[in-house]
Amino acid sequence: MTVQQPDVTIEKQGTSKGMGTMAARDARLAYLLILPGLGLVLIIILFPMVWNIILSFQEIGLRDLPTLNLLDFSNLTLENYTDGISSRFWIGLRVTLIYTIGSTVLAIIGGLWAALVAKEAFPGRNIFRAFLLFPYIAPVISTAFIWRLMLDKNFGIINAVLGLEGQEAIGWLTSRSHEFMIFGREVGLPIALITVIAFEAWRYFPFAYLFLLARLQAIPSDIYESAEVDGAAPSQRLWYITIPQLRSVIATLFLLRFIWTFYKFEDIFLLNGGAAGTEVLTVQIFNWLFSRRNVGVASALGVVLAIALMILVVVYQRWTAEEET
């Protein structure tokens, strides 16, 4: 018995040593697998981010980029931030918030309506469900071009259907404000901003529809049957059963769509280029860079927008963490 004890000890030590060696090799393999992705992150994300921050503290135009020395910190200044964060910036921020909140709320409402309709069984439901995804999967260039044609002031089909011609025709994407007769009073509405909000809501309501439909199908049907037996009307079942069941999904959708819409650029740019009171912050950065050829101010506004997005991401992460607990 005393002779066999050292053999057992040696076997255990060898096993633990082998396990340690295997763990070390797995760790090295993991680091090797991470390196390509880490390198791409450094090249594609971190380096342009640092470069943009450096540019935001320098007075530089587009023509100066070829001779720029990134390691020269002798002419750093805060004038780009003071010039960028002006009255025009606050106007752009207000337009961005109106555009973001309005399109997000309308997209969720449209997605909820589509989900409630698509949940019920009727002939051709699968075709209807597939058709609802068209705005989301269609190329944004094509959809924006079609909307521009339909909403054109001179030969657009929308004005023709409404019987508006000549002086009465509405420039849906080119008019900052238009007078409408509401309850016997003329009210000026920001028609171009309303139009781009409607386009954004139409394009992205299928995203909300998919999430809400999945949650609707997971609600037990016996809850609705019990409420119907108790005499609850359809509106009461919607308000007291469906909406509470969808509250967490709606909140998550709102945060996601708010973040994604806040830095949207291509939709408004393709529709009207940010004209007629629709210049959001992303379009404003584009105009500073390519219209005014001011790289410093454009970079400064990009940094400000990135900070705002980081705050929104932190809010979203805290929300998801609370939902998981």
Mean pLDDT: 85
Number of strands: 2
- Percent range for β-strand residues: under 5%
Radius of gyration: 28 Å
CATH architecture name of the domain at 101-276: Orthogonal Bundle
CATH C-level category of the domain at 101-276: Mainly Alpha
Q: Name the helicity range.
A: over 70%
| Largest sheet: spatial strand order | 1-2
Distance between the termini: 54 Å
Helix and strand string, N-terminal first?
HHHHHHHEEHHHHHH
Q: Which class do the helix and strand fractions yield? A: mainly alpha
Sum up the overall morphology in one term.
globular
Number of helices: 13
Write the layout of secondary structure elements.
Layout: H1 4-55, H2 79-84, H3 87-119, H4 125-132, H5 134-137, H6 140-150, H7 157-162, E1 178-182, E2 185-189, H8 191-217, H9 221-229, H10 234-262, H11 266-271, H12 281-291, H13 295-324
Antiparallel strand pairs: 1-2
Helix pairs in contact: 3-8, 3-10, 8-10, 10-13, 12-13
